[in-house]
Each structure stands twice: as structure tokens, then as C-alpha cells.
Amino acid sequence: MSPVVVVGAGPVGLTAALCLCALGIEVTVLEKRGRDAVRPGSRALFVHNDSLQLLDRAQRGLGTEIAEHGTTWHTRRTLFRGREVYSKTYRKPTGAELPPFASLRQIDTERFLLRAAESAGADVVWDADVTRVSATDADVTLEAGDGRSWRSHYVIAADGARSAVRSAVGIALAGSRALGSHVVVDVSAGARPRPLERSYHYAHPALSGRNVLTVPFTGGFQVDLQCRPDDDPDDLTAEAAVARWIRAVVDEDEIGDVLWVSHYQFMQVIAERFVDASRRVLLAGEAAHLFPPFGARGMNSGMADAEAAARAVGLALTCGKRTSVEDYDRVRREAARRNSWAVGAALRHVAPPSPFGKMKLALAGWLAPHVPKIGEWLERAPYGPRRPPRPGGRGRY
């Protein structure tokens, strides 16, 4: 029997495994994909400072290593219908500081985390598709479709939005689809590198008034196009369509290869409980909550879940403090509610649901070149309010 089994070898599951290893707890990680399988889709880019610090706590130097590989831009630029309404360049952190964030593709983040977890002693089992979970007051048994099984004292379920573990233990999600959808395109760097800046363009005149976000990552950049309610995703995701509209956003010689194109209908849902009835299964990351990506709250809040889950399980195993698992449920559900509130505020800003909201946004765009505070508001609002997930909590997520 393994003390802890983590289901899912994405960023959240691997972070949980790292944190458990740092506590001296043996851990097995089950991943349904093969080791060399390509993870589909444009996914999380930003590893924020809180998460870099968390990873440094789990394995000394890991956050620094990821930061050195990732890209950190220092200029924020906001435009409204073709006019610049905000621009600011920040100082670069000193060599001794972790940066505010590192921007890199999720496949690269996972590569660093996997190497670190395995070097710390985590046993990662590939092609392990969990199909059944049986939890009692004493332990948990997991079964894969090929007949293999594992027993453990605790399970941390980090198996994503379609979590098999969450379904197996009967925990429902509460919430709804978020308004609208987005097309996300990852592009490699072209012959001429793009400036290291994040730009958000409201009502882009060359894109029929759609909003578009462009952010760099190591080796390229990502373009996030906000669809209109009547858009047919195929009209924006087809190869010829992407080649056409992306050239309205960036210059021809800045475009290399299109690495991935995805269409997302964002969800805004939270599990009704983060712990099962036996208090042996803990949900983390997208197994526990789904947010639109405004403010990079998805992966970063999942990493915060992972550290908190590992700490709760560690206290239960080493000190017999099983109430720590209940504390995890309470604290991280509250964090999820506050993160959901923050992304909801961002969504209502970029896609106002009322005529008054639309008028307010249009007026702000007209006034912003003349009133710097309004330009600053337009710059900050698409990423959600900067508030901690709970009063007195550790970090932003």
C-alpha cells in the first residue's frame, strides 16, 4: 500500500507529488496518458511568483530554473479601437529575485515538474487510466481499465476537468458555462522577434470589433481572440482563417509556425465538496474547479491546491490529524469561490452583459487617452481584481 496516490501528472498532480516528497511521504502518481503522449490544446502559460516560490519550497531551485527558462515581459500595452490608451514599462527584477511570473508553454512547465518529481522519488505510472474508486474510512482502492489496482491511505485527485475520480466518488460541480468563447493560437517566433510586451486590444477595428490579447512565451507568443456570441468557431479556427486574421494582429515577419489552435467555451464551476465522504479523497486543480483564464487563476490556483492538499495529507498521516483534510476542504473551496468571483468580474468587463455596461466601456475607451486613471482601469480590468483568495491566506490564489 502506498501512503498517497496522486491521480494526474499535469502541473497540479506533479506539484502535489513534489510537495509530498518534500515532506518525506512516499507517493505514486497515476497518469492515463503514455509518457511520450502529446498533450493537446493551448493551455496555461503563466507561472506566477507565488507558484515559483511554492516550487522553490518543494524543491530548492526549481522555481528559479523555471523562471530562467520562461519569458518575463516588462511592458503592458492596451489599445481601444486602434488607439493606445495605456502603456507602462516596469523595472526588471534583480538577479537575486524571482520575477513576477514566468511565461512558458504548459508542456515545458510539465517537463520541469516531471523531472523534479522523479528525482525527488515520486513513482510515476503511465498508461494508468483510473476507472473505479472505492473509498472507505480506512483506505482507498483505485482500479485501472486494464485490471491493475492500487491501495493507499489518501488520494489527491488532480485528473482535470473530466475527473474520473471526482465522478467515481459522487462529487458534483456547481456553476455554469461562462459567457462567450475564445479562440487561442500558439505561434512560434518568426524572422523578427515580437517586442516583449503584453498587449490587450479592445474592439480591434481589423477584427470586426472583437477583443484580442497577445502575450509572449519562450519561443513564441499566444493570441487569444474573444468570439462574438454569433460566431461560428470553424470560421475562426480553420487554417486559412487563422492565417488571415492573425496577420491583422501581428506583423507578417513576426509569425513563425502555428503550433496549436484551440476553441474554448469557458466554464465557471466549483465542486460542491473538495473532499469525499470518507475524507480520504481530496480534489485539486481542475478536478475541483474550472475558471476562465483571466488573471492566470487556473493552473496557479491548482498549484496552491496541490501544496495545501499535500500539507493536509501530511498532517493526517504523521500526526493523526484527520481534521486537516476537512480544513483543506473549507479553505480551498473558499479560495475557489473568491477566484471565481474575480474571473466573473473580468468577464463582465470584457463582455458587458447589459447596455449600461457596454456604454460604460465605450465611454472609458473614448476618455482613456485624456484621463490616465481610466486607461489604467482598462489595462487592469481584463485580468480580474488583484485580491487574495481569502483573508489572511497564503498568496493570491
From TrEMBL:
Residues 3-338 form the FAD-binding domain. Keywords: FAD, Flavoprotein. Its cofactor is FAD. Transmembrane segments: none annotated. It holds the Pfam family FAD_binding_3. GO terms for molecular function: FAD binding; oxidoreductase activity, acting on paired donors, with incorporation or reduction of molecular oxygen, NAD(P)H as one donor, and incorporation of one atom of oxygen. InterPro entries: FAD-bd (IPR002938), FAD/NAD-bd_sf (IPR036188), RIFMO-like (IPR050641). PANTHER family: BINDING MONOOXYGENASE, PUTATIVE (JCVI)-RELATED, TRK SYSTEM POTASSIUM UPTAKE PROTEIN. This is 3-(3-hydroxy-phenyl)propionate hydroxylase. The lineage of its organism: Bacteria, Bacillati, Actinomycetota, Actinomycetes, Pseudonocardiales.
